[in-house]
């Protein structure tokens, strides 16, 4: 492993995942696998500190940093967070991302969690393509 707990500049050790940097105590048990156990660990649900809280903090910081760039350019009213990791983090993760984003971005889009569990981007692209195709095929204005 690199370094003895020293952290690099923003985007350094944080972008490498939970195993990088820190030097703190590691959990004795891994978090439950996706799909097993039915929900996030109790510490995550309660938003408490500990290894799960630190993991959520790191993930939220990285996600908010990426979102801040997109929000600055696109200025959306709503940002939908979706996917397995977002579902596992639940409301505590959404709240952390919102707090981090509020510090990084001038605009404040509403952050909501998506309800499409598998391949939300692919499903959205498919819905968009189907809508465009329907408009072209059934256009009555010609």
Secondary-structure topology with pairs:
Elements: H1 42-45, H2 50-74, E1 78-81, H3 84-104, E2 110-113, H4 120-137
Helix pairs in contact: 2-3
What's the short story on this structure?
About 50% of the residues lie in helices and about 5% in strands. The longest helix has 25 residues, at about 50-75. It has a two-stranded parallel sheet.
Task: Write up what this structure looks like.
- The protein contains four helices and two strands, in the order ααβαβα.
- Helices cover 48% and strands 6% of the residues.
- Strands 1-2 form a two-stranded parallel sheet.
- The protein is mainly alpha-helical.
- Helix 3 (84-104) links the parallel strand 1 (78-81) and strand 2 (110-113).
Per the principal axes of the C-alpha atoms, what is the gross shape? elongated
Radius of gyration: 19 Å
Kindly report the spatial arrangement of strands forming the biggest sheet. 1-2
What is the terminal-to-terminal distance? Answer: 66 Å
Low-confidence stretches: 1-38
Describe the largest sheet: 2 strands, parallel
Number of helices: 4
Mean pLDDT: 75
Total strand segments: 2
Strand content: 5-15%
Q: How much helix is in the residues? A: 40-55%
Estimated structural class: mainly alpha
The string of secondary-structure elements, in order, is HHEHEH
């Amino acid at each position: 492993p690199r370094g003895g707990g020293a952290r690099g500049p923003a985007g350094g050790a944080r972008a490498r995942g939970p195993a990088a940097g820190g030097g703190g105590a590691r959990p004795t048990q891994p978090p439950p696998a996706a799909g097993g156990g039915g929900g996030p660990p109790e510490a995550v649900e309660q938003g408490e500190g500990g290894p799960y809280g630190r993991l959520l903090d790191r993930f939220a910081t990285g996600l908010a940093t990426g979102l801040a760039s997109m929000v600055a350019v696109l200025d959306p009213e709503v940002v939908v967070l979706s996917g397995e990791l977002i579902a596992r983090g639940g409301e505590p993760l959404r709240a952390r991302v919102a707090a981090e984003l509020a510090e990084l971005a001038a605009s404040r889009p509403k952050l909501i969690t998506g309800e499409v569990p598998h391949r939300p981007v692919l499903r959205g692209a498919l819905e968009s393509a189907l809508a465009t195709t329907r408009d072209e095929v059934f256009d009555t204005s010609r």
